[in-house]
Amino acid sequence: MLGLLSFPGERTGYELKKWADSSLRFFYWSPAISQIYAELRRLEDLGYAASARSGPEEVRAKRRYSITAAGRAALAGWASDTAEAGPPVLKHGLLLRVWLGHLSEPERLRALVEEHLERTRGELDSVREALAQAADAPEWAFPRLVLRWSERRHLAELELADALLADLAGLAAQVAAGSAEAPATGSGPHPGPGAEGPGQGDGDAPTAG
Fold first, then answer.
1. What is the pTM of this model?
2. What is the reported pLDDT for 205?
3. How many CA atoms lie within 13 A of 93 on its CB side?
4. CB atoms < 10 A from the CB of 182, how many?
5. Dist CA 177 CA 91 (whole Å)
């Protein structure tokens, strides 16, 4: 929230929400409006933000928020911290569904991927709209860099989803031809680091030759 307030100007909670939706959500997170107001109150209590009500010239009174010198100093300290930022966290609901594809129907999985493609194209349009709105704002130079990254990420997501559709079609063809079977629900070896071969898991001794 301090990051949103650090850009020039004073903003209402609603304006902060719009700013988050048109920028922050494409690479990090967009808080709910209730969370925004709760955090603004907390930042005021800490002395990191200040607010003022609009005057009688506005039909509907609004409270606008700005960052204080103490808030900017705290934010600058965090932004310039040399500690590792940490790895990106990916929670891809579609891939979780595909991972559990042995419990679903192939047609449903393909439909989910196609819905994801359509939704991603809409998100890409939103990113490009935000880029156009920020094009002539010098103070948004760094957000523009992140929006360009977001544009490339959505393009990559479209490419990956198309490849996933092709993989699903290939697997379906293998099953139809009898060269592959749906995974069994029982125990067995699992892929990945530390995977054990048959007869070598759960403390079983290797079979003698």
1. 0.78
2. 46
3. 3
4. 11
5. 34
